[in-house]
Amino acid sequence: MNRSNVYELLEICEKDINLRRMTIDQIDQDINSLEDSIRFRRTQTVKLEINIQHYQQILGSSENRDRRRAVLVICENIASLEKIAATVRQKFQSNGNCNIYTYDRAYRKFEKSELNPGDIIIATNIAGRGTDLTIDKLLEANGGLHVILSYIPGNLRVQQQVFGRTARGGKR
């Protein structure tokens, strides 16, 4: 065997090795893509299972379904907010199945991200402006957010803004 034959054999082996590496790289890419797809499907499955539970809870005809709504009470000022909040806490907090929140300053972040049945929010109009309140699916099925305006505002725009508090998200 001469040198040129050896070099030709080495070149053939090198090409074969490179082809096999490319095949292995392609297989690795396919595996990574399939793993991503599996993770995505699992995430979608979990979301779907949660939605099924929500809708079973909403559509179920059982008597233990929570049919309450959430309530937003808008007060003219902090003094009336504190007075109403004290009365509401006295009447409703003792039974333990509702959450009462107050929101009295625009610079404070509202601590509740999604409203659930039985939640009561008492806020000033200034604190409530620009706050997007989202409601869960059960609350939407129960009729949405119930808004109470505890005073008569000076203009119609303020009143419309209060009653459309969750409407920006297309909710009731």
TrEMBL record:
Residues 1-172 form the SecA family profile domain. GO terms for biological process: intracellular protein transport; protein targeting. The keyword Repeat does not apply. GO terms for molecular function: ATP binding. Residues 51-172 form the Helicase C-terminal domain. Pfam families: Helicase_C (PF00271). Signal peptide: none annotated. It comes from the Eukaryota. Keywords: Cytoplasm, Protein transport, Translocation, Transport. This is Helicase C-terminal domain-containing protein.
